[in-house]
Here is the input.
Amino acid sequence: MKYQLQDGETVLMELKPADRAAWYFMVSRAWHFLLVIVVLCVWTLMVSAQNPEASHSFSRILNMITQGFFQRAGLENFSNLVFIVLLFLILGLMYVYFLFAVRGYSYVVTNQRLIISYGFIVLNHRIIPLEKINDLNMNATLFERIFGLGSVYIATLGTLFSGFNGSGGRGMMGSNRSGFSNNTTRLECLSLAQCDEVMAVISKAMKQVGIKAE
Here is the structure.
C-alpha cells in the first residue's frame, strides 16, 4: 500500500488480516444464504436417491425455470447434478470475493498515527492520530476464536461507552454493532498474536508522544 509519510514519521508496523478471515466473513456475513444452499443440496440429493419420479419432476421444474436450457443442452437427466455444481460454483465465487475484500485491508501504525486502508472495488483510507486515541481493547468472540481470529477496538476522543460487551465498533465490511459509538474503530480479523502485537506497538507509540491508553 502507498501512503505519504509526514516529516519525522516512521512506520512501526504494517499488517493485513489473515487469509482465513475470508472464511470467517463468508460464514458470518452470508450464513443465511449458505444455509439455503446447504438445505437445497441436501434436499436435492435426498429426492434423487429416494424418489426417482420426484427427481424427474424436479428436473422438469428446473427446466421450466431455466426456459428449457437443460433440455436443449442434453443435460435433462443430469439437471440435479448440474444444479448442485452451480451452487458450489456460487460458493466458490463468494469465497473469492471475500478473499479479495480481506486482502484489500491494511493497518499501518506509525509514530504519529494509525492508517487504515480498506475496500475491494472502492479504496478508502482512514487516519487516526495517536493523540486522539484514548482506549484500546482486544476481544475475540467464540465465533472468531473458531477461526483463530480476534479484533482490536480503538476508541477515539468523544466516544461514549454504554458498557463494553466485546461486540461493538465499526469494523470491516461496514459493520457497526451495538455497545460502541461511531468513534470506535475495529481492527478486525487479525490473528490473536497480531492483536497482542498491534496493541503493544500502539501503546508504546502513545507513551512516546505522552499519551496513556486506558
In short: Residues 159-168, 176-181 have pLDDT under 50 and may be disordered. The CA atoms of residues 22 and 98 lie 5 Å apart. The two ends are 30 Å apart (CA to CA). Residues 27-101 form one domain.
